Amino acid sequence: MNKEFNTVGFGHPCFNPDATLYHGRVHLPVAPKCNIKCKYCDRKTGCVNENRPGVTTKVMDPYEAILYAKKMLKREPRISVIGIAGPGDPLYNDETFLTFKLISLEFKDMIKCLSTNGLLLSDKLPLLINCGVSTITVTINAIDPNIGKEIYDYAIYKDNTYRGIDAAKLLIEKQLEGIEAACDNGLLVKVNTVLIPGINDKHIDDIAKKIKELGVYIMNIMPLIPQAEFSHLKAPKCNELEKVRLQNSKIISQMYHCRQCRADAAGLLGDDI
Hints:
Elements: E1 24-27, E2 36-38, E3 44-45, E4 55-56, H1 62-75, E5 79-84, H2 95-106, E6 111-116, H3 121-131, E7 135-139, H4 145-148, E8 152-157, E9 160-163, H5 164-184, E10 188-195, H6 204-214, E11 218-223, H7 238-248, E12 266-268, E13 271-272
Parallel strand pairs: 1-5, 3-4, 5-6, 6-7, 7-10, 10-11
Antiparallel strand pairs: 1-12, 2-8, 8-9, 12-13
Helix pairs in contact: 1-2, 3-5
Domain Radical SAM core: 20-259
Keywords: 4Fe-4S, Iron, Iron-sulfur, Lyase, Metal-binding, Nitrogen fixation, S-adenosyl-L-methionine
Cofactor: [4Fe-4S] cluster
């Protein structure tokens, strides 16, 4: 398992905090469809004002995305990572794989990165490896289906729709299976976990222990952005977030500099173009 990856000098700002001043990223919004429904998710296209996951000014086709990447690299030559992070789930969109192939042709030295809910990770892993993807982020908000069913409305897998606890069981099983396979194949894996007060806030350490066991390199505990079906919930306070991060830093390395980026973000973290 890929438990001891050396990130010294590694130019991915999300995996190496020392890289944030010298290395940037560009996200290519080529993946509009999603195969699960998280109760906190509100995907938007045509959105220029909100800075959060799931939003983009527009969805691009793979060829348009390559032109966008070239434009962003011209404006910010310190970009070293090209990623696909939505606005839906990249593994549920065939455009993702064509885009990665085009990236390999046009930007040979770029780190290729992907963010996913993990439902299709084990199924699509051979394609990702063939495309040269080396870093993956998987969002896991529960490893207990009884908690997961409070977070996810449904999951679509192999043309079947699962709801409630059945959706949570399937998603968790496939997430853990995919993460283990990715780590075993030498990919660098980060897990994002949304801290949802009153729902999974007492469960974060269970997630941390499990993903550490599987070989995950770093965990990113992010505050809930109250919206969609969770618009009535309150975001965790800064001190609550820091307390949970500190507690879990004893289990697995923590990311403290996440900006909860848009699906079309470009530039340095905290200094978007």
